[in-house]
Amino acid sequence: MIGGRRPLQGRKIGDRRVRVDRPHSPYFRYTGLDTLSAKESTLAPTSATGRAIERTRRLLFGRRLSSDEEALERLPKKLALPIFSSDAISSSAYAPDEILIALFAGGVVALQFSVEMALAISLMLAVVSTSYRQVCRAYPAGGGAYTVARENLGQVFGLIAAGALMIDYVMTVAVSTASAVAQAYSVWPALYDVRVEVGILSIVIITLGNLRGLRESGNIFALPTYAFLGLALLLIGLGLVRAVTGQLPSAPVPAQVPVPGTEAVTLFLLLRAFAGGSVALTGVEAIANGVPAFKPPESKNAANTLTMMAILLGILFVGFMFLADVMGLRPAVEGGGPTAIAQLGSAIFGDGTPLFVALQIATALILFLAVNTSFNAFPRLAAILAGDGYMPRQFAFRGDRLAFSYGIVILAGIAALLLVVFQGDTHLLIPLYSVGVFVCFTLSQVGMVRHWISGRDSGWWWRSAVNAVGAVLTLTVLIVVASVKFAGGAWLVLVLIPLLVLMFWFIHRQYATSARELALRPDQVIAPPHRAERVVVPISGLSRSVVQAVNVGRTISSDIRAVLVIDDHELATRVREDWARQVPGVALVVVESPYRALTGPFLAYLDVLDQAWTPDREAPITFVVIPEYVPRHWWERILYNQSTNQLRRALLGRPNTVITNVPYRREEPTVFERRGQLDGHEPPGERRS
Amino acid sequence: MIGGRRPLQGRKIGDRRVRVDRPHSPYFRYTGLDTLSAKESTLAPTSATGRAIERTRRLLFGRRLSSDEEALERLPKKLALPIFSSDAISSSAYAPDEILIALFAGGVVALQFSVEMALAISLMLAVVSTSYRQVCRAYPAGGGAYTVARENLGQVFGLIAAGALMIDYVMTVAVSTASAVAQAYSVWPALYDVRVEVGILSIVIITLGNLRGLRESGNIFALPTYAFLGLALLLIGLGLVRAVTGQLPSAPVPAQVPVPGTEAVTLFLLLRAFAGGSVALTGVEAIANGVPAFKPPESKNAANTLTMMAILLGILFVGFMFLADVMGLRPAVEGGGPTAIAQLGSAIFGDGTPLFVALQIATALILFLAVNTSFNAFPRLAAILAGDGYMPRQFAFRGDRLAFSYGIVILAGIAALLLVVFQGDTHLLIPLYSVGVFVCFTLSQVGMVRHWISGRDSGWWWRSAVNAVGAVLTLTVLIVVASVKFAGGAWLVLVLIPLLVLMFWFIHRQYATSARELALRPDQVIAPPHRAERVVVPISGLSRSVVQAVNVGRTISSDIRAVLVIDDHELATRVREDWARQVPGVALVVVESPYRALTGPFLAYLDVLDQAWTPDREAPITFVVIPEYVPRHWWERILYNQSTNQLRRALLGRPNTVITNVPYRREEPTVFERRGQLDGHEPPGERRS
Predict the structure, then answer these.
(1) What are the structural domain ranges in chain A?
(2) CATH number of the domain at B85-512, please?
(3) Does A600 contact B at CB distance below 8 Å?
């Protein structure tokens, strides 16, 4: 490197060299006077690994979308359907089991109610989806439960909806993962014993993918949904044909023969079955949240897609339940048995056939798609909440990897914990899921009723009536689910939601207080300062990083002194001699620290400097210029700068004090020094080509 | 507060106001030109709680000692004995049990060897303490195993000794705590079931005490040692008198009658008993480490105190074992039985008598004293190692609470973990203890042999012979302990020591590398810099903290611009209008971030600024002046400055860049602003009285 030319320092844009005559072009567009708009290249990864991952990501999912482009890129219905429906449609993979298991507690005789149950839930699906069509119309900018509740019912209900939504996303990850693993062990029973491990591994993979920039942004996501729809409809069609022709085989008897329950078939038992099956409705709200992504006319297209999705989900659900009834299918009450969908598949397609395996794989994939949707929605909700001041502000910068990462890691961690605690059992997880979802439904529908009533647009009375029916229905289900499943886990959600609301409220109060403290009167004009500056450089000896810090200090003020805090007289004398010879013109103060402390004596010295100032003059600003060594690797950090970090924290609380860190980077040892001043190193400059 | 006088800002010294004419006096003494020596007041606590604790601490333990005072304050033998001997003498509380338990595996008949075992170990004690007398003479500055091994046997053996010492300190805490709790449940058996909890609680209390500045520095520490010595000698004396007069009662039969083992009395069984009993020698080295604390002639006084301690320990140990033998005492093999010392005490003093209870309390206290000694020695060793570059540098500043805290918390954490893993069972912990201690003994003695041979002082041959006998003996014990207890936990220590040595070596290599990179040629003279400066202030809006940062930036350079990274056009326009009106003369650049990222676009903008610079001139230093909000409480930190912290980390790796943090403190809102410029707040100045 000595004497040679260096490559461009800082970030590189591919292999292209930056041309000086148009310096802004690779990173920015000019959009006005002193206004630049960042291009995607500003987010380019800097490491080789990062670039390789970025290339793969682009190949699979296309490039990132800016806010403007997101607004411009509209989905045709045939893409919007699979992207927004995976969550809802995938619930047909576990909802049938919920009904069958709940009914089976009343013995084989209770199973005859399964088709009625399916029809009742489909009816509810029809009502709720009709209610949500109205949300699509009323909130063309996207009507999440948080937005609708906050605008119509006020802050508290908005925050309740936000808390319930967060729980909803976590539960979607946990339930869908558990169900996907159940689809897999329905084909390969050996997986049952490692179901928790497999589930956590899946979450880890999806988490890493999302941390590295995997998003729902491409046609690739349409595939599993259409594959699942195709195979499931084929299954139902084939089953119906065989049922008509009388060729439908009876359901296979699972290895562990399920023992029918002996409960009386009471209303309570039927309510429990209904509560269990209501999980089929989870995810129905997704389209209403995403109206702006549709092609114009957005509201109409979204509403029609929603209806389409509800019809498909209804067909799948009722179809599955009808076939299960005809074939006399018995649910795997004990863990480890095949899921209802797997039993149907193996009976109709034939056990072990490629079609059956394909059905199971497609089911698992659409479930993972639902998981991935939550990984997207969670940080987006956090960003909206952060924008409104209810979450820490850093969540608002969604594009920064770190901000995004917090949300992803929290989501994945809690979901994985739930998988472990509930031993990967879908059936045990579902009570927690339904409560959160129906809280959102109810708040959203009640909010809509208020919306129509206060707006009084044409048709407001029948519109509000539709939402009122939806509200009553979802509230009823909520009460049913919360009461029949209370001991089974629903209580946890009912405790968590108020805690989350308290947290949001607390954060909001904090920000409000600090905003008040920081506010400027709008008519105040700020003039340049007239304060003097003083520079103090804490050092531990004489080194290149100290020289660098001292030279930075000299550019700030000529009132500069280095301070050596030390408990070794001899070493102090040696440093003083070297200093006088090598850094002429800069005072060195030695603070002996016989109690072997660094921070206390240094702070006290600064106070002494301030006290020497006469009281009727304004005290100068003290710049504490701290030399810092930048280690090559993150794990080396514990070896460096710990004492100065401590000093930095202590100085944060000190009046009239500014902290300047001068990082010393090994790759560029001559910064801040005179050209060629330090031998053996290349002079600075001549860096840009 | 408005218009009134403020009290002195920053740290206060009691209630005294600082007089401006002698500003240095409360904190510093002048010790030379530009040289100050910090007084203890620089370490004064700033919070009310801190001051209350400090007053209590002073009352109990007297004031802190500086390095100079530590060197001056010499202990008379009558204080040095209890302070340095607690570790060694307290081992007589658990060593007898070790011998008895090991022998009891061979049945009652094997117990007859117990007195012989005690005599053998006392003989070894005599040899080892004689060897250590020589260390006192050779290393008047303190001869820890690390020092002796490093100076005479080289770096590797020094580091092995250091690793073994660290393990030794951890094990002292674990074993002494477990034994102290065992002394307590010997009196109150109900404590047995909560022994782990009680042990951890004790460690937590001692940890908090040490974090708050409890040190071994006062007469208070002499009390438990003398109490224990007095009661134990009384016990032995009374026992002997009764034995001679034939009035000695036979040992009480514990509630759980111990079942004698059925092993043959082989050499292996006897070796195991010897290995167990050798734990009596732990702590013997303490005096040799602390020679400089003795009154002159230091070496002679230390050596005599050492002999005194060895004689006392020998008397206690042999006395206990003799009485146990005469009374036919059977050890509590199963956990929960009374300790040997408790059995003797309850038989001789009478069960439940005040004397018996006092004996048990004194025993527990001297054990906790040994624990506290480790809490002191561990950070001191870490400081020595840090000074030699084998531990992270921050450990070298012992006087700073944080540096000290790391060591204390690590020590307490590992010891508590061991208590949990070994279920608070002294007997199970001791194998790990003995190995570490005897590694230190052996290295120390071998080092002394080399010391005498290379020095060839008068009498070198007989001196080296004494240490050689010690070395052979301790090495033999080490081999015996390591082999007979290998599976019982000794293997862990034999794995840990090399790992610690590797860690020390790795840290040393890192520091050596960075020191080379940072080195200056001694003849290089550093001239003032001639680099231009440029200031960039990243802002998120217009607020008091931003105004403050901008004004600090203006004192650095007139080439200043504020940069607003934002993804909201409207907000950007509004900020621009306010900015133009309220902060005239400072350019505002808006960087629109359609990908909702902060760091990437900001860094790219800095690169664009650099590229605009013509390549043949040196690029200016970029000062990134970051407004920072200082929250009132630590738990508020997550709400503030997270994005800027991320920015800060990213900037550390950027060439030509200096990071300046301008903290905004609510208590002092007008710093860096023009006097009276912002209404509603008191003008700055007039702060010192």
Answers:
(1) 1-39, 85-512, 533-679
(2) 1.20.1740.10
(3) yes
